Amino acid sequence: MRVAFFGSPAFALPVLDALRARFEVVLVVAQPDKPVGRGLKLTPPPVAAHAAELGLPLAQPRRLRGDATFAEALRASGADVAVTCAYGKILPGSLLRVPRHGFLNTHTSLLPKYRGAAPIQWALIRGETVTGTTIMQTDEGMDTGPVLLQREQPIAPDWTSIELSDALSRQAAALIVEALEGLDRLIPQPQDEAQATHAPLLVKEDGFVRWQDTPQEVVNRSRGVAAWPQTTAFLGGGRLKLSGLSVAEGSGAPGEVLRVDEGGLTVACAQGAVRLLSVQPEAKKAQPAAVWARAQGVERGARFDLWEPAPA
């Protein structure tokens, strides 16, 4: 089978490598190079860099809709099927019809739950204990196409978005191979629209601690935003990155510091407390929470600022 692969971030690399091992990858499509770092050096996305290293045919169109040159390149590749994995662009209907078997997408949730750009992160934020991978036939909707295969992935209690992404990347690689090998006998199943939930792209504010939440909700949010935008809190208006959050014993007003000891900082939430191990002030390195607290004179009774969403 001749396969065109659409993907961009490092998450998609195991999927590309699994496809190469079993099929003929005739075209790799990634997002365009982007400026990175303080020097704004033009840098290819990981999938594009990997494809170039392997000598695979590579395309990085700036847009897909209305790009007749790219559509012709896909057609000329002779791909029987296209596979997408975290590509990052909406596919127009005209493109979906080019390969004989259309497009298959590897989506990191058990659809129809968590449709959208950040299913891994929102599954953690919402406290899910099981998620998984779905192989679906791509249509013009947002993750609305019929399902070909699904597999569950238990979520370990201490996993963040980093560990869960790694597990689901490997699962997606195995499942897409299984789907392609059984493509002629798999029966697409429509999704139940009544069960659909959404996982929008994260924004910086999603990382802000809600001290008014329960301890488990605070910890779950921290797990979900571990890769980006990370857990952020404010004290006296100063911005701090927090890590190593866990549920702890204690009670007080939300955001109130209850204890400062060698084990870290214990801060009250609704219906309990959380302990945090590390604090990183702006433009400084991360440090143990107790060391930071002593240096800043943060003692029992200090209050973290409460964050409230802006009015709609």
From TrEMBL:
UniProt keyword terms in alphabetical order:
Protein biosynthesis, Transferase
Matching Gene3D superfamilies = 3.40.50.12230
Pfam families on file: Formyl_trans_C, Formyl_trans_N
Q: Where does (6S)-5,6,7,8-tetrahydrofolate bind?
A: S109, L110, L111, P112
Enzyme Commission no: 2.1.2.9
The entry's family comment says:
Belongs to the Fmt family.
> What protein name is recorded for this chain?
Methionyl-tRNA formyltransferase
**Which organism is the protein's source?**
Deinococcus reticulitermitis
